Amino acid sequence: MDTLKLLSSDLELDLGDFLPLLQTLIREPSVVGSEDSFFRVLMRELKEVGAQVDYYQGVLVAQGNHPEQLILSAHIDRHGLLCTGPNEFQYAAFIASNKADLNGDSVSEQMMYTVENRFQNQRVQAHLPYTGTYLGQGCIVNSYICPARKNLIFELDGLDFLQPGTPVSFLDRLEVKNGYASAQLDNVLSVAILVYLFRCGFQGTALFTAQEEAGRSWRYALSWFYRQHIATERLIVIDTSPYPTTEAANAQQLVLRHKDASAPFAVGITRELEQLCKTLGINITYKDIYIEEQNLTRTKPHSLGRTELGRLIAASDGKINGTTIQIPTTGYHTPHETASLSSIAAAIKLLMSYI
Length: 355
Prior knowledge:
The protein is an alpha+beta fold. It is built from 10 helices and 19 strands. The strands form 5 sheets. A 6-stranded mixed sheet has the order 3-4-14-5-15-18, sandwiched between helices. Strand 3 (about 50-55) and strand 4 (about 60-65) form a beta hairpin. Helix 1 crosses helix 4 (about 190-200). It is globular.
């Protein structure tokens, strides 16, 4: 892959070292609920750069020499399918066992109805749940929402031999073209950024959580905070943020938030990031303000979304708080989610301020 360089303010950021890492991680399957094999890939990458790595149920914790410096977080799971019967496949995040925290107002649930017809002819690959061993490839020939099960149902060609419980991931490859990166970026893009930060000398703490798309990751993160007796207002969660068009996504390089549907975010670190962005010449907007403005002209208002951070804040009565940095994308929750290289560079540049 050719070296790609972006000029932003007075800093030249070379993405040539970052994009191969992102490309490698994208090829590793991490279907929601079946993330074990991806966790092991992460452990290897982080230990190679000297991080202290501890693996708990649902969360991998990497720490440098100054773990209290800053706590970053990103979820590792990506959307995919789960075999639930003879040649029967469902959207992994929304099978019945994962619905306890889904109440109709999450962005993921709302997006399900907009992506149901996007998967025809998409190549997929099956792998063993724990080891990640490759089992074979197939193709999606049809997808539809079953009103009784309230889930995306998929018809596949080529994987009728699979047993129930087998995860099936989208055959994912990174494409970099005309200033944009495309793949199933949510949320392997954020994971790659955190690994890259450790490569560059980050000495704080990073949490890599499982099952965010099923509404469960906050529970794993909260257990770790309680286990370590940590209270903080300086947790930064990195994620992508969906926009309907390229023009809407390009209206900003990065997205911040004052709040989500669960709780208000910490004012201090939110303002700190806003000021850093101004200093670094990074163009930002606030997603909660954007949604509220769009809702003024919608017949059915959209939810502010229930993020991992908001759930953490609400569940801990504010003892765990912080803010988010989100990279604007289009094609959300598809294998062709797209982010501008300018936004990716801006996120890395902003977080490098803490090294």
